[in-house]
């Protein structure tokens, strides 16, 4: 291939296109306005020239014959597949008229702004929703069960999210003298070879393994990491919290925890009333002198603690915070109550999980749990990488609390080679993610008061900015407490990828007065829209990637007909809906977002990526010691107590169990033995593919060739018992329905479980009803229910339901 007249554009991957969370530096080769190839940028510090199949297939994606290139207006009934091409002005005018009518008659909250995952839609869909006046931005998966619950959970007891450290904070990465290679890494529920989620990359862990890191794999499947692990803990899906509590049991009872971190940086010494089981608060204390301070006294008259109006301080010289045992404390009303410490309560809870009991719950041998826990605790430093399976259980926050307590109690939090507190590079934040205050936000608390779920669930009131998905679905049908009349759908394949019980979602879509959808291809979901707008890939837009480090620009390389970037679509409508919208141009918005960096967007474009200098407060390590995590600048963590909270004060305030613990999920052989009699196999879903991102890419020839069929993995013994051969089509069925998948007979799954691919539809089939691109044939979400979110509104049972299997054509069981 001749490079004559070829322009090479340096840019950053994000969706649409590869589909994933992106961040890779790439070189786009453009000739005569067309993409001729895409390569990884060898000078980018993160991917260092490496690139996935989805990015390499962009040449087929950009000019795919079925790609949407003009706005469409529905001219038939919903689902009938009849459309008319219209101009952008016509489309914008129609959307403006319909949505303003709903706003006038029912209020702005009656329009839901529905998003999925992947592309950089979060800030732009919030920008549009908030300009319209609606607080209801919804991540369309039950319980928001992807990534958001982990962020929310970490904010609950830790104050910030954290990730494993692979030197990603430094341009010279592993060679930086501040970085340390972890001796051990727990890879928890994460098939790294097939995914690059959450701004992390699989090859980073492989790089660390080459430098000596040993792996503990927690996964029911024999993944790439499980096959190379020092310890493989093959647990029953849904029992992760019990396993973490068992490991904590080993750490504490074998004295393998970090005493200094425990005593100085956790709320372990804080006092709890035995009669109520709750922490001592300001109302329990009595004022001392003129200092406007409140003091806790013990029965001998010693001062045990001081409340200064914001937190309880236990670092008085005459009190050893490591002491356990009961104390008599005089309260403000003169009464005396018996108290013990958080550490007492935490240890008591942990001791409810002896290893023989944990083995019974998890099906992992006690001796293996003990060996793995000892190895992790004795490795310095050590880290944990957890996958999306953590979110996909209803009791996600207690689970995250248990796992996070492992890295806290071993002193592996906010240290080189451990789990490092995440901060946006230069504190440049696009929108109000949990723990960050971006330039795009709700106008006021009054605007947020009617957000779906904000009254029912503590995290949604405190720092989880989305509308609660399960309640939203029900409200479409009930109209209470207010009617939902419209939906803006962007990056969300509700019927084909993200929506559980998709037939119920189809009925919900039919009830709405108006639906606008933005996508690059027609999907089963867009068939129910009134207007469909053609979006652009990452190569067709300018953009900002503000997500931890580096701070990156997305630089436009080409244009495809009338396709427009998501930000451009939403920007135009935001101006129409909000007369006070403050930005004149999209680049003005980008300048505002990256203002904390001291750069303009044009300057960032020239660099493409920028990592803050090592002395910058958004660069680790030991920021909890430096006072760089709390708004008041004091040492500690951004929690109500300023500590890592072994006992969560937020959870106590929300009326939830404040200690980590295990809760059996709702649809397992243990919780529902009646269902297990008819459906004896554990159904785990979400088998990842390196060729696809969720429900995307099924129409791209190179990628479809890599992974042509919807697959269910079945153990050889299980397959033999059911007369199923490798490559044969089978029915996977439970009380909700059935779907047709191709058997992959393999020992990588245990004999008591099957693993089903998700997000399957067939773009080559008819798009109109009843086919809807074959979405009802192999979509495993048909077997998963809505409405089983956790007690705090987060999480869903995607990884541990029940099913039976039988060969297609065999006599179907009643």
From TrEMBL:
Q: Name one GO molecular function term.
A: acetylene hydratase activity
Entry's Gene3D superfamilies?
2.40.40.20, 3.40.50.740, ADC-like domains (2.20.25.90), Dimethylsulfoxide Reductase, domain 2 (3.40.228.10)
* Alphabetized Pfam families for the sequence: Molybdop_Fe4S4, Molybdopterin, Molydop_binding
Q: Which residue intervals define the domain 4Fe-4S Mo/W bis-MGD-type in the entry?
A: 10-66
Q: Which UniProt keywords apply?
A: Iron, Iron-sulfur, Metal-binding, Molybdenum, Oxidoreductase
Q: Which cofactor does it need?
A: Mo-bis(molybdopterin guanine dinucleotide)
Q: Which residues cross the membrane?
A: none
**PROSITE patterns under this entry?**
4FE4S_MOW_BIS_MGD (PS51669), MOLYBDOPTERIN_PROK_2 (PS00490), MOLYBDOPTERIN_PROK_3 (PS00932)
Leader sequence range is none
Q: Which InterPro entries match?
A: Acetylene_hydratase, Asp_de-COase-like_dom_sf, MopB_CT_Acetylene-hydratase, MoPterin_dinucl-bd_dom, Mopterin_OxRdtase, Mopterin_OxRdtase_4Fe-4S_dom, Mopterin_OxRdtase_prok_CS, Prok_Mopterin_Oxidored
Question: From which domain of life does this come?
Answer: Bacteria
Q: Which family does it belong to?
A: Belongs to the prokaryotic molybdopterin-containing oxidoreductase family.
Classification via PANTHER family = OXIDOREDUCTASE YYAE-RELATED, TRIMETHYLAMINE-N-OXIDE REDUCTASE
Record's protein name: Molybdopterin oxidoreductase Fe4S4 domain-containing protein
